[in-house]
Design goal:
Number of helices: 16
Strand order of the largest sheet: 2-5-6-1-7
Helix content: 40-55%
Largest sheet: 5 strands, parallel
Distance between the termini: 42 Å
Strand content: 15-25%
């Protein structure tokens, strides 16, 4: 059967034909081996830490098997959420309900029935997971509140001692302190830190995938796509799939990916990304009180306030997922045309704090940045890619 582009490049599902195995820089062992090894150790909880959109869930699917994973998100928990009730529901278990029982009275041969209620216990849920070889994967653990994370850690501490298997997934700079610093879990953690993807690894996705489709791509072109993919295999899959769509629509008989198609592919890739409201909110900044904000003349002839400059600075070359404060400041200063009128460093820092407060507490899609201890972390590579190529930010030089 002839493969289609959507069979080969799968940004939202397990990439059967373009799965690339990587080795851990620390141990020189593959991440697949390390995760399999961790899950075999009885009584241990696995902590998997890595940047967003880097294939952590795909790794779990590869090792555990899609049908054996029970996935929940930190966002599924509020302070009232019953951990075991959620774990049961996600595994398809009825946590509570009613059943009817029937009894015959021997003397009269009469029948009577009664309804009884039941509620699963934690022990029964743990036994079900063990019997079915299920693994609970708690993705985006950092989305749960700090108090809830501590509660979950307490539940997991007892469960893993009974053979319950779980993987806690979180971001590097928001490392799951509730798990890693829990004294009760000391010595009971298998910790796996996933490094960001290297350009050479991402290039393999394009080279392997296009080869399976009978499409040629030069190593340099694959490298350029890899750089714009911001260390994200998911984004690499997105871009390659859109390149195939463009070639198909154009009726390209050469079956070759050329450099001139890349900018179009980047712009088309952002078409279905829902970050327009996020960018608008960031550019607008917090509600104005009193006098208007200072505006600064940029080298493109337009005037921008401090929040608009911060957004533009994030989108500048080179694309980086972590910016130190000096990097942000220098990018802003390069944008401003008038050397005599640049925003003060303290004003930039205060604006970053307010921008963080503005994004906090909103829906998950707004959680794209984290200003923490003098560093600006871009949490979502798809967001940064949108900044660079979608809407008003698409004309990156």
């Amino acid at each position: 059967m002839e493969l289609k582009a959507e069979d080969v490049f799968r940004p939202g599902a397990f990439p059967e034909y373009t799965y690339i195995s990587r080795k851990s820089a620390v141990s020189d062992l593959s991440y697949e081996f390390r995760l399999m090894q961790a899950l075999k150790v009885s009584g241990f909880l696995t902590s998997l830490v890595g940047p967003s959109k880097m294939g952590k869930t795909i790794l779990c699917e590869k090792v555990v098997g899609f049908e054996k994973i029970v996935e929940v998100s930190g966002a599924d928990f509020n302070i009232e959420t019953d951990f075991w009730k959620l774990a049961a529901a996600k595994a398809g278990m009825a946590y509570e309900g009613q059943f009817s029982s029937e009894k015959i009275i021997a003397e009269t041969n009469d029948k009577y029935s009664k309804k009884e209620t039941y509620s699963l216990t934690k022990d029964k849920i743990i036994e079900y997971y063990k019997k079915e070889n299920l693994v609970l994967v708690i993705d985006d653990f950092h989305y749960a509140s700090e108090e809830k994370r501590m509660q979950i850690a307490q539940q997991l501490k007892d469960a893993i001692r009974r053979g319950f298997k779980a993987i806690v997934v979180s971001l590097p700079h928001r490392a799951d302190e509730a798990i890693r610093r829990n004294a009760d879990l000391s010595g009971r953690l298998s910790m796996i830190n996933m490094a960001a993807w290297e350009v050479n690894d991402l290039k393999e996705i394009a080279k392997v995938g296009f080869e399976k489709l009978g499409i040629q791509i030069e190593d340099e072109v694959a490298g350029q796509i890899a750089i714009e993919s911001l260390s994200s295999p998911q984004l690499m899959q997105y871009i390659c799939l859109n390149i195939c769509t463009i070639l198909e629509m154009a009726g390209n008989s050469e079956r070759c990916v050329k450099q001139e198609i890349l900018r179009t592919a980047y712009r088309y890739t952002t078409a279905n990304f829902e970050y327009g409201d996020v960018v608008s909110l960031m550019q607008k900044g917090p509600n104005m009180r009193g006098k208007s904000r200072n505006r600064f003349l940029a080298d493109d002839g337009q005037e921008y306030d401090i929040y608009e400059l911060i957004v533009k600075s994030i989108a500048e070359n080179p694309p980086i997922m972590k910016l130190e404060f000096d990097d942000v400041k220098e990018r802003i200063y390069r944008l401003v045309a008038d050397d005599s009128k640049k925003p003060a460093p303290q004003a930039i820092k205060e604006s970053l704090v307010k921008l963080q407060e503005l994004l906090d507490g909103r829906e998950d899609i707004f959680k794209v940045l984290d200003w923490k201890e003098g560093s600006l972390y871009i949490l979502d590579p798809l967001f940064l890619f949108y900044l660079r190529w979608g809407g008003s930010m698409k004309n990156v030089s």
